[in-house]
Amino acid sequence: MNLMAPGSLAMPKRIAETERKDALLQENSYTVLRFLAEDVDKRLDDVLDSILHQHASICDRLKLIFSLKCLLCKRAVMTQFKNFCPDAIE
User: Fold this and answer.
1) How many domains does the chain fold into?
2) Domain carrying residue 58
3) Cut 0.85: pTM above it
4) Contact call for residues 47 and 39 (beta carbons, < 8 A)
5) What residues are paired with 8 via a beta bridge?
6) CA atoms within a 13 Å half-sphere pointing along the CA-CB vector of 25
7) 32 and 65 in one domain?
8) Cβ contacts of residue 32 below 8 Å, gap of 6+?
9) Which residue from 3, 26, 60, 69 has the highest number of Cβ atoms inside 10 Å of its Cβ?
10) What would you report as the CA-atom Rg of the chain, rounded to the nearest whole angstrom?
């Protein structure tokens, strides 16, 4: 999460650098949230809602990944079990 200083959007070099950093972070599975400092002052509730929404989204994705890994793990265990005890499971 990053708070951008006033005037940051008026500097093309700063915007390009920020976009490059964001792309690098996202390529490495980071979620990037950027807010203007003035928005935090003027619209704090909206900023906090955005953070909470993003957090919930990340949690939902992690739950899905964990569920899929558990399912794959269960399948692997069942396959191994069938190999050792083929008559136990029909």
Assistant:
1) 2
2) 50-90
3) no
4) yes
5) none
6) 13
7) no
8) 1, 2, 22, 25, 26
9) 3
10) 22
